[in-house]
Amino acid sequence: MEGLAGAVPGGKEAGLTAADLPRGSAPRPVPTPHFPDRLHAFVWRNWQLVPARRMGEVVGASAGDMVRLGRSMGLAGPPRVTIEQQRRSAITIIRRNWHLLSYAQLLQLLVWTAEQMAYSLREEDFLFVKLGNLKPQCEPLVYRPPDAPARERAREIASVLRAEFPRGVGVPEQPLFDFVRQLSRPPEDAGVQRGGTSAFSPRYCYSYFALYGDPLLDPTLDPFPDGYLARLAASGVDGVWLQAVLTRLAPFPWDARQSERFDARLKNLGLLVERARRHGVGVYLYLNEPRSCPVGFFATRTSLKGVAEGDFAALCTSVPEVREYLASAVESICRAVPGLAGFFTITGSENLSNCWSHGNGKGCPRCGKRAPADVISELNTTFYEGIRRAGNGQKLIAWDWGWQDDWAEKIIAQLPRGVSFMSVSEWGMPIKRGGVATAIGEYSISTVGPGERARRRWEQARDRGLRTIAKVQCGNTWELSAVPYIPAVANVARHAANLRGLGVSGLMLGWTLGGYPSPNLEVVAELGSAPAQGGGAEPQTAMLRVAERRFGKALAPKVVEAWREYSEAFSEFPFNGSVVYNAPMQVGPANPLWGEPTGYGASMVGFPYDDLEAWRAVYRQRCSLASSRKWRRDLSTRTRSWRLRSKAAAAN
Ligand SMILES: [Zn+2]
Questions:
Q1: How far is residue 404 from each of residues 323, 407, 408, 461, 595, measured CA to CA in Å?
Q2: Residue 623 pLDDT
Q3: Cα of 306 to ligand 1 centre, how many Å?
Q4: Burial of 80 (0-12, 13-18, 19+ CB in 10 A)
């Protein structure tokens, strides 16, 4: 699972240069022999993302030189590239140029400082990890007019493009990120009936197009424009979440500079909460706290120092002063934004937070002597205490993500009664795919949960009187994140029906892949709605209702049939944690076919390279191929037959 991060207390890095950025083993970059040379690859890969003038500045050429080079390969355009598009595609620009440019030239291309790059690599969802924990050693790229062999190869590429793409390549049919504009427009119809009671509340998700940074200070980063909130509400969503960093939202008692403008952020959070409320949507904050501080911070504050990792150390939550800071920070947020719906916590993973958060609590003189379960339940109790003091009724959802198996029972036993307990629904479910027995981690729509682990933990929580919440993936997952939603609607419907049957009272609809207003979300809402509103339905009925709303009465039965068949085929997905993180599903044909071994290992949802061993993981080569062939054949046959049948139905 990827993390979310924000400002690190004391993490200011003034005066950084490109030379200070992380390099890892700095191996040789992968070659690009299918291009005439590196310069052509550079122009090709940035054609739609970076204005030609900027590309030229990076390599010492004019915009005209860049445009000529691109067109010599048959590219049309270049398209106009807006500032907004450049900002949204920054990570794509980094990835496409990772093997082409040095840091110095990459910074020029992005118009970034080294500080911005350092921050991004560390904080934007552990980006450097996803890039492989290394920066290939790239020589400076300098423009030279192409020589005869390069011109000849460019002509060959152009003729391939003409033959394969008669309508031209180079200018996208829709402007990049046009979906952000589309989703931000108010919806035309009302969608799901709102206002009724539901078996599932909250039903909350993340933004489909959030950017990292400081969205509560920078209004251009708004992850939840009004039109999008209305669309989510119409899809049956009643909550959204965004990351919170306490130092940015409340005074940091040991260094007030960390909290500059916290009050402005709280004011904007209040405005977001108010806007969301008008759509019947609550706002939740994700806490992964306390964030660790640079080791230097503790030089004069040794009594606060817990477990150290590299240049950072934990603010030890066994120290009463630290807990008081956390409780009062949460309290002040709840007071300043009384309409805030609540918080959810990750306390056993992601950033280094409490001393046991990465399992190494023994390194702390205080927490090392305590059971991890005591430290973690105490931390959740501390957050809850802050909420309680403010008295505005915010919810606290304690998520078991990252809790070790032998901690969980003891943590749940010590959570305050007002806390809701959330567990990953499908975790640990045994599966057999392509003849191989393995187990689900999370992020699966191919598997219909819940699994035994979640059932056991919910039961324990319920016995103590806690509300229970399931973390599921309703729209898409790392099984295939490159589409807005996976139309395995029947699987999602069955999963929701199972959870309703178990009495699970709320749903986190997905992690950072975000919530696209999809039939999947609508079906989940249908399954939650009360019998009085025609709810309490079985999956088939719920799907029919959604299909009728979206496609009309005549087509609805065919659509439901397609969803069912698609779900059946998708259930053959060769799931394994290593497969979903390493294999090329997320990038598809953008991962080249390599002529020679690259020597690189696949990186987590970053570069798949040619690391077949990591892609296939537990699946034997032959069965993996056979299984995926069967899977593709199933999907394409079913899609084709569905198209024919729906055409027939439409004609009728
Ligand atoms: Zn500690």
A1: 23, 5, 6, 17, 43
A2: 58
A3: 4
A4: exposed
Q: Which of 555, 431, 544 is nearest to 489 (CA)?
A: 544
Residues 273 and 340: beta-carbon distance below 8 Å: yes
> How many Å lie between the centroid of ligand 1 and the Cα of residue 376?
11
- DSSP, res 171: S
**Strand partners for 390:** none
Residue among 496, 501, 417, 403 at smallest CA distance from 461: 417
Q: Is 395 left (phi over 0), alpha (psi -120 to 50) or beta?
A: beta
Q: How far apart are CA 311 and CA 11, in angstroms?
A: 10
Output the CA angle 212-334-304, nearest 5 degrees: 75
C-alpha triplet 11, 13, 17: angle, nearest 5°: 150
Cα angle 408, 414, 417 (rounded to 5 degrees) comes to 115
Structure tokens at 162: 């003409």
Centroid of ligand 1 to alpha carbon of 352 (angstroms): 11
* pLDDT score at 652: 43
The mean pLDDT of 44-73, rounded to a whole number, is 98
Calculate how far, in angstroms, residue 296's C-alpha sits from the geometric centre of ligand 1: 17
pLDDT in tens, 24-37: 999 999 999 999 99
Place of tokens 């409780």: 327
What separation in Å is there between the alpha carbon of 370 and the centre of ligand 1? Answer: 9
pTM exceeds 0.85 for this model: yes
Which structure tokens are listed for 117? 């790059």
Instruction: Report the alpha-carbon distance of residue 635 to residue 615 in Å, rounded.
Output: 21
Q: How far is the CA of 401 from the centre of ligand 1 (A)?
A: 20
What's the one-letter identity of residue 438? T
CA–centroid distance, residue 411 to ligand 1 (Å): 17
Nearest to 396 by CA among 330, 448, 465, 450: 330
Compute the distance from residue 329 Cα to the ligand 1 centre, in Å: 19
Ligand 1 midpoint to CA 418 (Å): 26
Q: Ligand 1 centroid to 319 CA: how many Å?
A: 7
- CA nearest neighbour of 314 among 364, 353, 365: 353
Ligand 1 center–CA 167 separation, angstroms? 62
375 CA from centroid of ligand 1 (Å) = 8
Q: How far is the CA of 7 from the centre of ligand 1 (A)?
A: 21
Mean pLDDT of the chain: 92
**Sole residue written with tokens 């400082």:** 113
CB 52 within 8 A of CB 63: yes
Distance 341 CA to ligand 1 centre (A): 30
Mean pLDDT, range 462-469, rounded to an integer: 98
**How far does residue 320's CA lie from ligand 1's centre (Å)?**
11
Q: Tell how far the Cα of 419 is from the centroid of ligand 1, in angstroms.
A: 23
pLDDT at 238: 97
Residue among 230, 265, 228 nearest 248 (CA): 265
Size of the chain in residues: 652
3-state percent breakdown (helix, strand, coil) of the chain, nearest 5: 45, 10, 45
Q: Distance from the CA of 432 to the center of ligand 1, in angstroms?
A: 42
Q: Quick: pLDDT tens for 207-262.
A: 999 988 889 998 888 999 999 999 999 999 999 999 999 999 999 999 999 999 99
Instruction: Give strand ranges (E) for 297-456.
Output: 305-309, 312-315, 342-346, 395-399, 420-424, 430-433, 436-439
